[in-house]
Amino acid sequence: MAPNVPIPNPITNPNPNPGSGVTQSHWGLDPVLLEVLACPAEHHAPLTPGAPDDPGAPSLTCTECGRVYPIRDGIPVLLLDEATLGGTAVDSAVLR
Ligand SMILES: [Zn+2]
Question: Residue 60 sits in which domain range?
Fold first, then answer.
């Protein structure tokens, strides 16, 4: 445990002065955009960058249902039909 080490969180700590820093966005995504994106499922939970089994993957993972949405050409594809299921088990929408 290291309680004195701050943990940077680009999602809950948006850069108030864009252009002044060298903030690395996720695969060309605007951090502000990331903040407003939500799962298209009815819970509309926030999304977190990366996939459960690959934090560096160009995807967004729902914090609620665990669906993984691909990012194509810098554009997150937030469609239930396009979502895949990552490491988190979700018992529906797998079979079709
Ligand atoms: Zn979801």
Answer: 37-85
Distance in Å, CA 4 to ligand 1 centroid: 33
| Model pLDDT, residue 10 | 54
pLDDT in tens, 12-61: 555 555 544 445 567 777 888 888 999 999 999 999 999 998 888 999 99
Ligand 1 centre and the CA of 24: distance in Å? 25
φ/ψ of residue 35, rounded to 5? -70, -30
In a domain, 63, yes or no: yes
Rounded Cα distance, 65 and 44, in Å: 10
What is the total count of domains within the chain? 1
pTM for this prediction: 0.63
Distance between Cα 82 and ligand 1 center (Å): 13
- Residue 35 Cα to ligand 1 middle (Å): 15
Q: Residue 28: inside a domain, yes or no? A: no
Q: At 47, which CATH number?
A: 2.20.25
Domain-located, residue 93: no
Instruction: Return the sign of the alpha-carbon dihedral for residues 35, 36, 40, 42.
Output: positive
